[in-house]
Amino acid sequence: MAFTVKIGSNLSPQDMNFFVNDLLNRVPSGTNELILDLSECQFLNSMMLSGLLNLLKACREKSIQLTLINVGTSAYMLFETTNVLELFKVDVNSLRKQDPPDLNLSVQRLNPSQVVFTLGGGLHSSQQCARFRESYEEVLPDFSDAVLDLSQLHHLGSAGVTEMFRLRGLLQEKAGHLVIVSGTDSVESVWRMMHLSSLIPKVASLEAGIKVIKQWSVK
What we know:
single chain, 219 residues, alpha/beta, five-stranded mixed beta sheet, four-stranded parallel beta sheet, 7 helices, elongated
């Protein structure tokens, strides 16, 4: 017997914990499959993903199959990027296909050795990563410090993360630095789930990022 429940994307961490505990209490006796409908879930944050993992663990302990249906592009990408997709049973026939956002990219030179890259839309496909790579390689000989502004980026995949670390490595070879400006909720979820905050300095605003690299230039 299957039991279906819908979940939205406006749950706080406390709401998510209550939802998981309450849901387990409401599952009828004899249920062998719990179907979680994500059709009203526009995005997943790290706390919601953690709640789903807790729910998955509890279902396994009760020998209940947890199935996710109507998963949107953003949520599916988060599963892929954080390497948890294989843990869940996802009904691929019900995936909510959404056109992936284009990469919006701008480059602002602060001075001869410092630059700001502003990314918007999505950075996950090989084409988007190649475009980003071309943009920084074109100006790389001229700068050693960079701000990467993710405040307008809505989709970040593992390939995009890899490209950011490649840029950081190239700057480090020149004794330079890379600082990240915090992104949207979906990007921040990826950042936390991959434990990236301790690897690349991150600030809350573009103004703060520019201030940091200007301080580096006088050291």
